[in-house]
Amino acid sequence: MIKTDAVIIGAGPVGLFAVHQLGIKGLKSEVIDNLDKAGGQCIELYPDKPIYDIPAIPECSGKSLTDNLLKQIRPFGSNFHLNERVQEIKEDKGIWILKTNKNKIFTTPNIIIAGGVGSFEPRKLPLKELTKFEEKSVFYSINDKTLLKNKKISIFGGGDSALDWALELSKFSKVTLIHRRDDFRGSPHTINELEKLKADGKIFIKTPFQIKSVNDGKVLKFIEIKDDNEKTEKIETDIILGFFGLIMQLGPIVEWGLNMSKKKIQVNTENFQTNKQGIFAVGDICSYPGKLKLILSGFHEAALASVECFKRARPNEKYRFQFTTSSKEIQDRLGIKK
Ligand SMILES: Cc1cc2nc3c(=O)[nH]c(=O)nc-3n(C[C@H](O)[C@H](O)[C@H](O)COP(=O)(O)OP(=O)(O)OC[C@H]3O[C@@H](n4cnc5c(N)ncnc54)[C@H](O)[C@@H]3O)c2cc1C
Description:
Blueprint: E1 2-3, E2 6-9, H1 13-24, E3 29-32, H2 40-44, E4 50-51, E5 60-61, H3 62-73, E6 79-81, E7 86-92, E8 95-100, E9 105-108, E10 110-113, E11 119-122, E12 138-139, E13 152-156, H4 160-169, E14 174-178, H5 188-199, E15 204-206, E16 209-214, E17 222-227, E18 232-236, E19 239-242, E20 246-249, E21 260-261, E22 264-266, E23 279-281, E24 286-287, H6 295-313, H7 328-333
Parallel strand pairs: 1-9, 2-3, 2-10, 3-6, 10-23, 12-19, 13-14, 13-19, 14-15, 22-24
Antiparallel strand pairs: 4-5, 7-8, 8-9, 11-20, 16-17, 17-18, 21-22
Helix pairs in contact: 1-3, 1-6, 4-5
The site of flavin-adenine dinucleotide has 36 residues, from helix 1, helix 2, strand 11 and helix 6.
């Protein structure tokens, strides 16, 4: 069981800045995100797109904003629980108990929901028999490519992720790339590379094909694919990778008894608390009159929520507003040496 001052659900830009605002007040936080990396929409949807409206930063990319937010919160040593989704919450005498889909339990007086447009989840292959192989031999993202060495890998998808991984993994494994259309959506350079490897017999490409079936039993051995005329082929396979993009789902958050309207959580703008004491909502997921879905609005919301979190986590201490430049206490927390 992990006990902390605040649990932040969502490691998008607003969740990351919430770590900072809690941290400078001396509060510890744990961050949970369904994705395999921090950054939310900035990293998942537009890592290279320029952003021009972050105060005092004339231009940055989604990736550089995320990298800088992570750098800014490093002194606070928050733990990140990635690839993990908060499934259930319950209250016991003013303390919230959270359980994730990996059965990790957290106890805390404060939950900050910074879940954006919901948890990003991979679109999955349309064959329910594959579920039992997930995270063993069927994957929708890759954390450690060394585990995929010397394998027979079937990759499904026709976009950049599928093509890039097909190229990369073909360096040390037997790769078959399967796509339901004849055309790929990758960059011309990547498609040329694939064609060369195919001509040299270093990669196998099957189009237009889709998955039809998979072997029974506990260990993945082969898949069957079919084309538009129901012609089938059997492919020996140890690993299936699917890259069909992401869908966004609010998921279990809707079951937590929070006041919601149009898939957003209603908050009180004094402290961004929801209708449940100790549960806050900030960033794109919150709603109030005049709400702007901008990163800078989320930063402000996280700052105000953190003040109320302090009052709940340290009920016997008085909250004192301080500037970071003039507070020795804050500078110590940031590890600044003068
Ligand atoms: C193409 C595009 C361009 C944009 N350009 C700009 C711009 O120039 N300037 C600007 O200010 N804004 C811009 N925005 C908007 C900006 O990206 C959002 O306002 C911002 O990302 C919101 O941050 P957030 O932290 O609230 O949520 P998100 O970035 O959506 O992050 C939420 C995180 O929470 C996770 N999550 C959700 N539910 C759960 C759960 N139950 N368990 C675990 N994890 C969960 C998700 O996986 C996600 O990582 C743009 C948006 C898009 C799509």
